[in-house]
Amino acid sequence: MINTNQILQKHNIRLTKSLGQNFLTDINIIKKIVEAGDISASDLVLEIGPGIGAMTAELSKSAGKVIAVEIDKHLIPALNETLGCFSNVSIVNADIMKADIDELVKDWTGPLKVVSNLPYYITTPIVMMLLEGDIQWDTMVFMVQKEVAQRMAAVPKTKDYSSLTIAVRYYSDPKLMFTVSKHCFIPKPDVDSAVVRLKKRDLPYMQDIDKNFFFKVVRASFGQRRKTLLNSLGSQPWLRGGKDILRQALVKLGKNENIRAEELSIEDFADLVREI
Ligand code: SAM
Fold this sequence. Notes:
This protein is an alpha/beta fold and 276 residues long. Helices cover 37% and strands 19% of the residues. The protein has helices at 4-10, 27-36, 54-62, 76-83, 101-105, 123-132, 146-152, 163-171, 211-223, 229-232, 242-252, 266-275; strands at residues 23-24, 44-48, 65-70, 89-93, 112-117, 137-145, 172-180, 185-186, 193-200.
């Protein structure tokens, strides 16, 4: 196991809070994250934000290849030292939001898995970019803030069920794997964390639905989640036919007029979009 404090001191690294630099120091948690990805020699792993490489080293023992994309150039010399002995690791100094991921992964013919202890300041943009983008991933394992993991893997009729849940479920089967105490990091973050696994899925019943309109409806429905669907979605100026059409659609789908967004499954939203 890499000694985080020693490496930080040796390379005179000052951690940057604004880049979400909270490094995992618990080898058991690192091993559990790698296990959650069920990684084998046929897999290419894209790791976002390797830090000083503690998880990268474990990933490289199971994966065929690891591409680790780190934004902070001050960490690159430390990564070169900690990962120098792993021939299947490539370190890329780039912002994952700007990197050409297609180009990075294009030569690999096996499954692509994304594994990351995500920088928390940019969790949702990174997750949405990967979900909505064109790269052909198989599984993604993310450590995120506990509340975000709960929202990603939520089920209907709970307070965590949100438009993020629907977006995640649109592309994947999410599973909350385990929670991680803030004491497992240097420096200690303000919040506890959790690991969530997303397995890619196809949605045959969504094929006839316009994706942009679907998400417009979902966002408007959850926009004012305390209101009934008739009052949140029904009051949108762009909804042709307004509340009347929506009321008719709900009746047709056998739903109560006073239903709220959090009571609808992703399949219910798909049916609703077909009706309105
Ligand atoms: N993987 C390491 C670990 O588990 O100990 C570090 C995780 S730390 C929570 C997040 C890492 O992401 C930091 O090393 C940070 O510099 C890096 N990072 C932040 N924003 C990034 C971005 N836009 N693109 C790539 N890496 C980024």
